[in-house]
Amino acid sequence: MKSAIILVLLCFCSIAASAQATCGTHDAYLEQMKNNPEFRLKQEQSKQSSSSGIAYEGIVTIPVVVHVVYNIEAENVSDEQIYSQLDVLNEDFNSVITSPTQWHEVAANPEMQFCLATRDPFGNATCGITRTYTDSTEFHIQTSVKDESTGGISGWPARDYLNIFICDIANLRGYATFPDAEDSIDGVVLDYLSVGRGEEFAFSDPNYNLGRTGTHEVGHWLRLTHIWGDGNCNIDDGIMDTPNAPGPNYLCNVDSPACPNQSPGYAGPLICMVQNYMDYSDDACMNLFTQGQVDLMRKAFDSNGSRVSILSSRGCDPPAQNLVTFTLNFDEFPGDMSWEIIDEIGNIVASDGNFPPGDEFTPSPLAHTTKVYTLDVPDGNYTLKLYDSYGDGFCCGVGGYKIELIYDDLVIDGPDFDGSELSVPFSVNSSNFRFVGGSATGSMVDWYDPANWNRRASPGDCYEGDIIIESDCVKNDGLEINPPTEFIVEDGVQFTVNN
């Protein structure tokens, strides 16, 4: 379609089908374009790369973290409802659902899959869902659900995760940011009454009960605009194989006429593509992306794309078993040093050496510096071996080493190395379990009760049941828990709080 594209930073959909669902932040976008030269330049660069870039080939896997921000229990949607939304995304973005005959030639498979994160930004086990109580009864653009100062919660790094926020949005079904948004606001926001599908869940409108609000907003997150281009027949979405439409469509009027003026090269029928996920049609009506839309979305993952870093995310990898940091403080002669960490059956699990030696006139660039290594090792017994080819260990009163377990006590700390080789045995046993509490009433908190868990199913549904109990978990009713280093939750635990 035409090259004129209006990008709006946030696109909103109304809760009621009868209401004219329009983009609510177009004026804010224009204000940014007018007053923020850096933002304006980034938008222009993005349009150029989108028009000239090459669409990424291969399956795209996108780690997802869902942040539930609730004021009342009805807003604290269940894990099952969230799972159903992920199911819809995986179906809509990784298949070509049977589309009407007139659109068969242009319907395309985005070949994208979405997984709830199993690994958080620190490498710990996670269920991919966070729950945060808020005093805010609803969120607007000005009171962002992504801002802790306004009752929300900060998202996880946008370079590694798709952040989906679920909350009570004032008169909206959802909104999303386009690529190139600042990390602090990046992501998709869904109203709690527009999440997932299923007769057992509550929805604001029975016409929008199949999870297509999520599909629509993720399309925005991948740079798709509304199919009518947020304008009239003089503006369109910039996609060649979608018909130029005079405005949004509601319900499922398959005979809705398209604009009489179409882009050169458009050969499709002169009716609106009401089945497209980027229209406002009923959920049951939507069933396709076009090849042009797929190409644009996948360009976000090419080598210069705005979301290419997602491809190297470890968000859906197994969580780190034990994060260990090894700190090496070099003396004046780093070139003499090397080290290994060996497990109990003799395997070398980590090592380094061949550091620049320097000479009598030019010291090594590593002299008197510190190098920190982060390791991921299972529970077990290990040996740190330090080697010095000159045979004097750490020289001249400088140099040293330290091994620490993340979230645990110091294991080894000391500079006692004055020969050619030093062996230091140590053990790693830090299988903690992460948990962030949900709501609670009264003085009795049953942490295994589905009403109170961070997750809403048996522990086995989380990544191998690994859940770490946070050291400072503050509940919405004022309950504060400061547990010791480790709790192992196996069959359910009750905490009794005496007021």
Indicate the topology.
Blueprint: H1 26-35, H2 37-52, E1 60-70, H3 79-92, E2 107-108, E3 112-116, E4 129-133, E5 162-167, E6 174-176, E7 188-191, H4 212-221, E8 289-290, H5 291-299, E9 323-329, E10 337-343, E11 348-352, E12 370-376, E13 380-388, E14 400-405, E15 410-414, E16 421-428, E17 434-435, E18 444-446, E19 468-469, E20 473-474, E21 480-481, E22 494-496
Parallel strand pairs: 1-3, 1-4, 1-5, 5-7, 17-19
Antiparallel strand pairs: 2-8, 6-7, 9-12, 9-14, 10-11, 10-13, 13-16, 14-15, 18-22, 20-21
Helix pairs in contact: 3-4
Question: Which descriptors would you attach to this protein?
Answer:
499 residues; alpha/beta; Collagenase (Catalytic Domain); Immunoglobulin-like; 6-stranded mixed β-sheet; 4-stranded antiparallel β-sheet; 5 helices; 22 strands; disordered C terminus
